[in-house]
Amino acid sequence: MSKFLKNCYANLDAYVPGEQPKDCEYIKLNTNESPFEPSESVIKAVNSDEVKNLRLYSDPTASALKSKISELYGVNSENVYVANGSDDILNFSFMAFSGESKQAVFPEISYGFYKVFANLYGIESEMIPLKEDFSIDYKDYLYKNKFIIIANPNAPTGLTLSVKEIEEIVKTNKNNVVLIDEAYVDFGGESVVPLTKKYDNLLVSMTFSKSRCMAGARLGFAIGNKELIKDLELIKYSTNPYNINRLTLVAGVAALEENDYYMDRCKEIIKNREYTEKELKKLGFTLTDSKTNFVFAQCDFIDGEELYKRLKAKGILVRHFSLEKIKNYNRITIGTIEQMRALINAIKEIKEEVK
Ligand code: PMP
User: Fold this and answer.
1) Is the C-beta atom of 156 inside 6 A of ligand 1?
2) Strands (E), 171-259
3) Measured between alpha carbons, how far is 221 from 66 in angstroms, rounded to an integer?
4) What confidence score (pLDDT) does residue 24 get?
């Protein structure tokens, strides 16, 4: 750290992304990426004359992309904000919506970035414990009078709240923004986007990183009341108006033109998830009822960290968190069926090794 860094940043506990080791070709089941390539339309769009246009700034209004998103989700363009990954939406939301009292509330076990953003902006975080079974009790979030953020489905548990439960939270917190992070909603959850027409305090964020096979393109979007969207635009135009590059913009449009391709890939992930769940259960694992592109699993024959290490030694990366309450679990991204078979075989070997 240099002597120039402001004191308020000196103790930041930054987010630690999932590892990307280069020492060998791993089966990468640790960062919830898609195992599938983007659709042909995206590959064509990116390899087009648009490359030559890189000398020009990108469209700060992202109008073509917003129009596609609004069509797909049945809202108006003015209800859509697009961002450099949904992390940017979370970032701006913590910056803009934590209120004069600078308070935020989110589940104790959830996406690790929430706490990081709260710390970055000096926001006091109320982190509400999950229930024993790792589910969220929606009643804990009623009448909070604070900025609320909930991942639905939640990560790393994969569990969902119902639309009704979220509506109760939104309804009882009318003076605060409720941000529902739907990064994983396409793998079996139910979106609350329709509720954004009814409630001006509900913001929904989504990403192209998971179900749309484009984590490396960095593209996310939010849907909400047009005033909330204007607030996000205000922050964007006060920081980085050209927040999405030209190639990502055309890739986003092209992806939405082949929506069926992506929805089929989601179905395939769900099928592979069911296979993985069945096989892990046979091996003695307990799992949460995940509605995402990952499973959250633990077993009695080996502790979570040791399993993570042994899988890594066999060339398979999964995500282990050292948090006390979940340290016996691993979060395993669902890949292709071949990758999941390799995972199951590796775990069978490990089970034999530790006998
Ligand atoms: N929300 C959740 C719950 C996530 O797990 C992730 C991915 N790590 C994100 C948001 C951010 O995704 P991205 O910035 O790639 O859109």
Assistant:
1) no
2) 178-181, 202-207, 220-224
3) 9
4) 79
Q: Distance between CA atoms of 81 and 165, rounded to whole angstroms? A: 25
- Which of these, 154, 147, 105, 163, lies nearest to 133 by C-alpha position? 154
Ligand 1 centroid – CA 61 distance (Å) = 23
Task: Give the strand order in the sheet containing 330-333.
Answer: 27-29, 316-320, 330-333, 294-298, 286-287
* Ligand 1 atom nearest to 220, measured from its CA: 16
Sheet holding 178-181, edge to edge: 80-83, 220-224, 202-207, 178-181, 147-151, 103-107, 124-128
Residue type (1 letter), 295: V
311 Cβ inside 6 Å of ligand 1: no
Whose tokens are 């909070």? That residue is: 144
3-state secondary structure of 109: coil
* CA-proximal residue: ligand 1, atom 12 (nearest): 86
End-to-end CA distance of the chain: 47
Cα separations (Å) of 238 from 241, 261, 327?
A: 7, 36, 40
Q: Is 245 exposed, middle or buried (0-12, 13-18, 19+ CB in 10 A)?
A: middle
State pLDDT tens for residues 224-242: 999 999 999 999 999 999 9
Check whether the bond before 17 is cis (ω within 30° of 0): no
Check: pTM over 0.70? Answer yes or no. Answer: yes
